[in-house]
Specification:
Layout: E1 2-3, H1 8-24, H2 34-42, E2 43-44, H3 57-77, E3 82-86, H4 93-97, E4 104-109, H5 111-120, E5 127-131, E6 149-153, H6 162-175, E7 179-186, H7 188-192, H8 198-203, E8 223-229, H9 236-240, H10 244-252, H11 257-260, E9 263-269
This protein binds S-adenosylmethionine.
Length: 270
């Protein structure tokens, strides 16, 4: 068992890991991420204290699912791609997508997080972990710049300052010949309402960067391909497994666009 002492934004990745583990224990899981469950069983931590329940785990996996699908789509079209998985936490997206060996995958997060990944996840020839803050931009020099790039950042942008986030995008767009950025963004209301976000509050993390209109990022060299607000994430199968009140809350998103737009999954090309 690995004992861990993560705080603030680093602790939030334990909540999302636990969400995927809970989903994998369902008879009809959304992601079926059994590697997440194995990791949870090897970490000595009171996961329940982060406030993720069977119902709230659903929002974790419903966010991950379209990101997996868009990423798989890019990799089918670009089997020579390089993947930067930023703010990866303990996510096992590399295992879920199982890219061909011609794809090189970089998982990037703070050094303490990467250290835990290295203890729990097996190495692979086409996989590299980089332990750094994504905003200490020197890490980019470790990555070749001559291949199409898929950049995935799930649950990361909202923790960055707008200045750091936009500078990161500028540098990524300038570095590669072409690529896609797939990430999620919170609206300014999502940032204002952060005290209502139980795992964020319990981890004592701070959300900083709100983006109301995904087109805003186009001024940094991106071209928006798709955007899915939270009212589009759930499916009838998933709804059926939820408690009536949670189901009601998710249904309400269709009628209150400002609430649905608090969280958006976005896909850009550059
Ligand atoms: C909500 S968790 C998401 C983790 C993972 N993407 C997932 O979906 O399970 C946020 C992650 O972003 C990482 N993070 C936040 N700010 C970062 C930064 N400046 N540099 C590197 N990682 C960062 C945290 O350490 C944490 O692992």
């Amino acid at each position: 068992m690995e004992k861990v002492h993560f705080t603030e934004e680093k602790a939030t990745m334990l909540a999302t890991l636990y969400g995927r583990a809970l989903d994998s224990r369902e008879a009809d899981p959304v992601l079926g991420d059994h590697a997440a469950d194995e990791a949870v069983r090897q970490i000595d931590y009171d996961f329940a204290k982060l406030g993720i329940t069977r119902d709230s785990a659903v929002s974790v996996v419903l966010r991950a699912k379209p990101i997996d699908e868009w990423a798989a789509d890019y990799l089918r079209q670009h089997p020579d791609a390089l993947v930067l998985h930023l703010g990866c936490g303990m996510d096992t997206r590399f295992q879920r997508l199982a890219p061909p060996e011609t794809v090189h995958w970089y998982d990037v997060d703070y050094p303490e997080v990467v250290e835990l990944r290295e203890k729990l996840y097996a190495p692979a020839p086409n996989h590299t972990n980089i332990g750094t803050s994504v905003t200490d931009f020197g890490w980019l020099d470790q990555v070749p710049s001559d291949r199409p790039a898929l950049i995935v950042a799930e649950g990361l942008t909202m923790y960055l300052t707008p200045e750091d986030g936009t500078e990161l995008i500028r540098r990524l767009v300038a570095k590669f010949p072409s690529g896609e950025l797939i990430c999620d963004v919170f609206s300014k209301l999502g940032i204002k309402a952060q005290k209502l976000n139980t795992p964020v509050r319990r981890a004592k993390a701070t959300l900083r960067w709100g983006i109301d209109d995904p087109h805003e990022l186009e001024r940094y060299g991106l071209d928006l391909m798709s955007s899915l607000d939270a009212s589009h994430w759930s499916t009838p199968d998933v709804m059926a497994r939820l408690r009536p009140f949670t189901r009601f809350q998710l249904r309400m998103l269709k009628y209150f666009p400002a609430l649905a737009r608090m969280a958006n999954i976005v896909r850009y090309r550059f």
